[in-house]
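Lesson 9: reading folded outputs for more than one chain in a single document. The general rule is that every protein is listed as its sequence immediately followed by its structure tokens, and records are never interleaved. Here is the first one.
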Amino acid sequence: MKKIPIYIPDHEVNFGVGKLLFLLLILSKSTKKEGIFTLDRIAQFEFISKHPILLNRLLDNKDKNFLTLTNAEKYSIEAIFPNRGQLFDFTRIKLLLNILLSFGFIDIKTSEDFQILYIINEDGKNMADKLETAYFQRLEKVLIQMKPILNMSHSKINSIIQNYL
């Protein structure tokens, strides 16, 4: 009996780079201060963007409008049983950030409290604007709905996520 190959797009490098670049583009537009994305914050928001059902729980906590979810976002195996390891394993995110840095799509700054911040630059914005597939159109809707939770603390978001998991 032959095994059917399973292709998981999240593990494809170009897809991951595009998704991360798009995340930085959309969510950076909504902040007044530059540089809110540390490594752990990027991992957290990337996880939430992958699990929009979780986003609705966070929006409920802020009394904001919910995102209309597709059946796949509600009933897929990954939606029902999210992999919490993605919140704490930064290896993949570091790899993707290194690729974005090497292509000159993001810049790094150090905050006053010595945290490393990742900021999309003009080249990155131009590249992210070219991402126009149906997936990225849906991702844009999800990311726009995430804007109200940008001012929530990392620990507050984590506590809500942990209650869900």
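And here is the second record, again sequence then tokens.
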Amino acid sequence: MRDTAFFQGVTQVETPWRGQTIRLPIFYYDVTTVAAAFLTPLAPVRALLPSPRLQPLRATPWHTVTIITAFEYRDSDIGPYNEVAIAFPVTLDRPAPVLTGLLRAMAAGPMAYVHHLPVTTEIAYHAGVDFYNYPKFLAQITFRREGEWLHCHLAEGERTILTLTVRQLPTRPLDRWRFHGITFREERILRSEVIVNVHRQAISRNPAHVRLELGDHPIAHELRDLRLGRAVHVQYIPQNQAILTPVLESYAARKG
């Protein structure tokens, strides 16, 4: 039975879409989330950002991070599906302080440019592209629990993209967390928001608590070209809920 207390008082709008209706914002009732942030040289990440207004958050004067997040959506307004996000935390216009800016953003809820967002169902694909212009494609995403470890395998067709393995660490209570998804459409920077009812989570800075294996898919080669370094942040949220807002703001790609 769904626990809906988190969603009470939040009004959804029935929106006509592709011959049916979809409720916005989208509610996610039962989710597992694992994430890891890997040190990455600044230059190749800057080259992937669609606007000079987006400034990578820096872990060192020479490094940002690449965040890989896996979501197992067991129950949502658009059905069950799985998803993997490859994203870069950013600020708008003004660079944040080295390290402290990144740490503050990760704790409070980062703004992140979403570079790839594969999903497992047609409805999740079309909703993400139509409403947000998320860079989605259909893929095979499977989760496997083995002892202390949770494995997420991502592939497109016969080609493996990656396997992310995170240790299922002891969790602590946490109320809410949020992050701001950044996408790009028609020379506009778009911002939407995800509010997460975390319940309990584990955070680790120990790189031994995560493993990333890359396959032979072009995205795997792209990640190799980014020269990912050690993991500096690992997050495990075994059972959470979330609200995905519509696009809330847009900005010109260039100032002036």
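What the second record shows: The longest strand covers residues 188-204.
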